[in-house]
């Protein structure tokens, strides 16, 4: 995203464009959305758009990051115990924002969203691991590898769940993820090596 002063006009413009992107994604595939569509829907001019964003992919990244920041804020308000992967909360968040996530899975936008989410979730997992395992070492599995594995496993399961129209509750999906992905983590946290 382009760097700019975060004054009220700039924030308003970014909000208008982000809202336009979300509305348009509910109506059609990301691939079919043009910058002109965004301009028309948000009511801003082309030069204003390009003063804030490089292209429509930049808008999508911004929307994704806003959604994740909203999630992080909700998590901090809930005083949830710090887990390596806050899977239950993420499944609940996806259910509460089902239309957004469903729209994000269609077309090219899905790749942009998942790349952004994978990077952010992986970084968050790695930070949590560093805190959780401060005194322990990873003799055989570097934290970066662990974080990539967990983030990828979680996001693939989340994507399947959304595309299958959420056949199980968030609680059941959390239980499934915990049983599939986390036994190895428990072993690492306890300090046992392979």
Word description of this protein:
The chain has 194 residues and is mainly alpha-helical. It has one domain. 72% of the residues lie in helices and 0% in strands. It is built from ten helices and no strands. The longest helix is centred in the middle third of the chain and has 24 residues. The chain is elongated, with a radius of gyration of 19 Å.
How can the largest sheet be summarized? Answer: none
The total domain count is 1
Helix content: over 70%
Separation of the first and last Cα atoms: 43 Å
Any key phrases for this structure?
single chain, 194 residues, mainly alpha, 10 helices, 72% helix, elongated
Task: Give the topology, please.
Elements: H1 8-27, H2 35-42, H3 46-52, H4 56-78, H5 87-96, H6 98-104, H7 109-132, H8 143-163, H9 170-181, H10 183-190
Helix pairs in contact: 1-2, 1-4, 4-7, 5-9, 7-8
Quick overview:
The chain has 194 residues and is mostly helical. It has helices at residues 8-27, 35-42, 46-52, 56-78, 87-96, 98-104, 109-132, 143-163, 170-181, 183-190.
